[in-house]
């Protein structure tokens, strides 16, 4: 097993500044209105070089909304949270048992609005210094934890396009048996671009999402 690097990779440290400077950062997703409820997701990266990976969660199949979808750990910012980073880490700790002491927060990306839920979501970029296997603590909410290698996400063979029930389209990814799409798919697509991982691909595969799924932006 390769030894984990001691420092976060340069591309990860640069992500917050690159996102703030990029006018195409999640193009098509509106800025949050003032009344939007604050939420945060954790973009937790481990490893270096071609072995870098991203922590994702599979939502439980019995949930009323977004059942079975793949997402970043995270949730609403509670009154007791110190801010988006604290909220994202708290949620990951509650959902997966993440050891916060093993994580270094790099920074925050600009908040994005999810109209169907009314949340203004702040992606929090973090470096996982001491990664360990994780699993869901509350399976009524989270079915499993998944670590997706960036090299696999960037592989054109694992990329496809989905058609939302609303008729819109967006990028998606095969992650083992799971399909990553919606807000999470769009954000990963931009992370690959900003982090220098992106490879040319054509949407040769197009999948229509069933009407029971909520149409994310």
Task: Provide a descriptive summary of the structure in words.
There is one protein chain. The protein is of the alpha+beta class and 217 residues long. It has one domain: Nucleoside Triphosphate Pyrophosphohydrolase (Alpha-Beta Complex), CATH 3.90.79. It is built from four helices and twelve strands; from the N terminus they run H-E-E-E-E-H-E-E-E-E-H-E-E-E-H-E. The strands form two sheets. Strands 1, 2, 3, 4, 5, 6, 7 and 8 form an eight-stranded mixed β-sheet that branches. A four-stranded mixed β-sheet has the order 11-10-9-12. The longest helix has 13 residues, at 84-96. It is globular. The model is unreliable at 61-65 and 212-217 (pLDDT under 50).
Could you provide a short overview of the structure?
With 217 residues, the chain is of the alpha+beta class.
SSE topology:
Elements: H1 10-21, E1 37-46, E2 53-59, E3 70-71, E4 74-76, H2 84-96, E5 103-108, E6 112-114, E7 119-128, E8 142-149, H3 150-154, E9 159-163, E10 169-175, E11 178-180, H4 182-194, E12 206-208
Parallel strand pairs: 1-7, 9-12
Antiparallel strand pairs: 1-2, 1-4, 2-3, 2-8, 5-7, 6-7, 9-10, 10-11
């Amino acid at each position: 097993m390769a030894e984990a690097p001691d420092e976060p990779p340069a591309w990860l440290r640069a992500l917050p500044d690159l996102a703030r400077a990029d006018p195409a950062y999640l193009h098509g997703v509106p800025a949050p209105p003032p009344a939007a409820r604050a939420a945060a997701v954790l973009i937790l990266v481990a490893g270096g070089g071609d072995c870098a990976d991203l922590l994702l969660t599979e939502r439980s199949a019995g949930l009323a909304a977004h059942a079975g979808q793949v997402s970043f750990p995270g949730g609403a910012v509670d009154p007791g949270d110190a801010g988006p980073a604290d909220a994202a880490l708290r949620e990951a700790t509650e959902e997966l048992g993440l050891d916060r002491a093993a994580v270094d927060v790099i920074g925050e990306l600009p908040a994005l609005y999810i109209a169907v839920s009314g949340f203004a979501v702040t992606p929090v970029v973090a470096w996982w210094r001491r990664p360990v296997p994780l699993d869901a603590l509350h399976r009524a909410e989270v079915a499993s934890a998944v670590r997706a290698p960036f090299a696999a996400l960037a592989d054109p063979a694992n990329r496809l396009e989905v058609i939302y029930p609303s008729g819109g389209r967006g990028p998606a990814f095969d992650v083992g048996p799971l399909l990553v799409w919606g807000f999470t798919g769009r954000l990963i697509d931009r992370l690959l671009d900003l982090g220098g991982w992106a490879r040319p691909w054509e949407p040769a595969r197009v999948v229509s999402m069933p009407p029971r799924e909520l149409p994310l932006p």
